[in-house]
TrEMBL record:
Keyword line: Heme, Iron, Metal-binding, Monooxygenase, Oxidoreductase
Cofactor entry: heme
Organism: Rhodococcus olei
Pfam family, one: p450
Stored SUPFAM superfamilies: Cytochrome P450
Lineage summary: Bacteria, Bacillati, Actinomycetota, Actinomycetes, Mycobacteriales
Homology family: Belongs to the cytochrome P450 family.
Superkingdom classification of source: Bacteria
PROSITE patterns: CYTOCHROME_P450
Protein name as annotated: Cytochrome P450
InterPro entries reported in the protein's UniProt record: Cyt_P450, Cyt_P450_CS, Cyt_P450_E_grp-I, Cyt_P450_sf, Cytochrome_P450_monoxygenase
Amino acid sequence: MTVELSSQGTLAIPHPRRRVPILGDVLGVDPGTPVQDSMRLATELGPIFERKVLGKRFVIVSDPDIVAELGDEARFRKHLSPAVAALRAIGGDGLFTAYSDEPNWRRGHNLLAPAFTQSAMRRYHESMVDVAAELGAHWDRSAGSPVDVSADMTKLTLETIGRTGFSYSFDSFDRDQPHPFVASMVRALTDAQQRVSPLTLLTGRRRRRSREADAAHLAEVVDAVIRSRRDADGGDAPDDLLELMLRAQREQDPNRVDDLNVRHQVITFLVAGHETTSGALSFALYHLSRHPEVLARAQEEVDRVWGPDADVRPTYEQIAKLRYVRRVLDESLRLWPTAPAYAREAVEDTTLRCGHRMAAGDWMLVLIPALHRHPVWGDDADRFDPDRFLPERMRGRPAHAYKPFGTGERACIGRQFAVHEAVLVLGTVLHRYDLRGEPGYRLRVQERLTMMPTGFSLSVTRRHRTDRPGRGVPLLG
Ligand code: HEM
């Protein structure tokens, strides 16, 4: 990166041309799409630029060298951006919204990390297969009408984290409307993201009331889940996240957390554990529907690894063998990383190698979709190409050019969970259906802290044995 130094010897950071006094860089900005606006600004202004909104300064970076430096845990740590700090209204000091020096972050991390190891995934596998099969049954019932992909992926991922983490079913596929938990969560996330916008500042009181009602509703749902567990006969309690926390309380474990934090952790995992994976699956299905050659290759792989039985229940080992499907997921998360930003603050005064000085507490926002389109990805970085994730091509790129799951000790604890679930679900869909997107659909991305395709539907038709090369006899009907 080339740098230009200001008269004070620090990096002169570009900003949007038309800056308005007091309000800041708001012209041409849509409060509903701050991430996509910033992606556009990154192409205009480069891999480090600033935006000011109502006196709040955001330094936004997408340069792999700077991102690598910000990942140095000795000099930087997680910062709660204004949007993430606003989420504390529902997540309190749960893992995602805790400050790194809050005691409950370390305790919660130590307590819950064993539930996210690769071997722990074996315990969740059968429940994940069950939920994927329910999606199949739901789509079979759609009888040829297009399915709303993001809505159904949200049902699926909420159901999966509910059952695996808390042995609780939201009965997602038996509902016409999303569970009220989802409606409250979507409003809470959207509200958090828009909290820094001057336009939304004007709608104060009504917004505050609705925010409080949503926080109360989320707490109510979660307290009911916790209560039903406490009331149950503890004899054969399921081995899940909730049990880990309740057992630690009973056994006076040094990492035990109090009742309020148990609530915060459950809300955190229900939200963080489904919203991002739902978006990742929806984007992957969007790309598959747009790239018939990728779709055919992915289907060929699933047929080969899982065999011809349309109602197959894949084994745990058969998920990791879907290498090409995994590359489809990785490439979807490159173009549309569904948790699109994370913030890092300087632990003490420091100077970046590019010359930019940061005082202790100064922070920068890593804009992941722009990092994932940096020139190190080549001059066709906007093109969907899963083979970018072939091992030999990955070795040729800087490691910090790909960060969909964040960085360091505050990186995503649920990464293995998300990958196992997403590959399993994509495998199930590809094995069972042919997919056809609406020909006129142009990708629209909704932002609510996370990103999700909107208005995207697919026509799904059951595949026959004759659709699987070299097989012969029809499987159905
Ligand atoms: C494709 C799916 C997912 C993506 C893209 C994703 C992305 C991320 C990112 C970027 C962070 C770091 C945020 C920051 O530094 O501020 C994060 C943290 C976190 N994620 Fe995920 N995530 C996904 C799935 C999951 C799942 C399935 C779970 C739980 C089952 C989960 C639970 C969490 C939690 C609890 C944190 C906070 C960790 C901590 O700070 O200790 N995520 N995730």
